[in-house]
Task: structure prediction
Amino acid sequence: MREAGNAFHMKERKEGAPLPKTSQHIQLDYRWMTQRRVIVLATASIVCIYTIYTLASPSLLSEQQEQEWRLGFIVRHFFIDIFEIELITTSLLFYAIRIYANWLGWNQLNLNAQRIGRYLLGFLPLFLCIFFLINPITQTIRYWWNYYPDWHADIYYAEYYYSLPLYLRYLIPIFLLGYGALTYNLIRSFNLQQNLLEAQAKGTPEIYLEVYDEKGEKRLPLSSIWWIEVEQRRYFAVGEQGRFRLRQKLNALETQLADKAFFRINRAVLVNWQAVDNCSFWENEKYILRLQNGKEFVMPRQRWVKIKEQLKQDF
Result:
């Protein structure tokens, strides 16, 4: 992999060169599907829908379950038997979507109803077949959890193995998760591209950091980065599109980004001040800096005083 050159580059619009109000296509990025928070939230949403549906349909419960319908049963049945196991379903489904899209080269999409419809419909074969990959894993774990140590093959093949009712029951959450994720990705990609066009239309130079991960090199918009950190002598940029490696050291980045609202809050972290929510005193001359996404960092008082002085001068 070739070495990156300058840490960041600027794209400036030539004077008098018109920009389109909208782009004819959008770039699709599926990396956000690998984030643990996304997988947990997506699974929790589906479990909530299933829980509400079950509570509204008592006929779906057996007599024994109706008698045990109390807090302990709810925690065991929905949190362990469904939520924790279906985390595997969501993880495998999102992974399959990424592989399937990359295999077909669906990394950009024209903005018209027909192409969007074909794009969404193109994932239908994946969603119809993914059950045969997921079912043996999740159902075997669920069977083990419910019947350990008294395992009976006849129960497993009758209730947990491939069957048409089980297949149809699995299709509902797979469709909700799959098409929900694809729709969100379309909206997210469109908004990111529109923000970029608006920034260019205002004459604001777009700045990029050159980053890389296991898939290769990538030019990451500086505005999309929340913080930059060092971990075990490795440097990472963390933001809207995920976590990526950097070749530049933190001291060099601090100097290069000094006028771009990036501040050194401790020995290991540079923070984009546009992503900061608030700062509050903690203890022993230390402060807690909170980002808008909930991430928290510890910051010495000396750093906080220096940042406040710089903010007064710059802004």
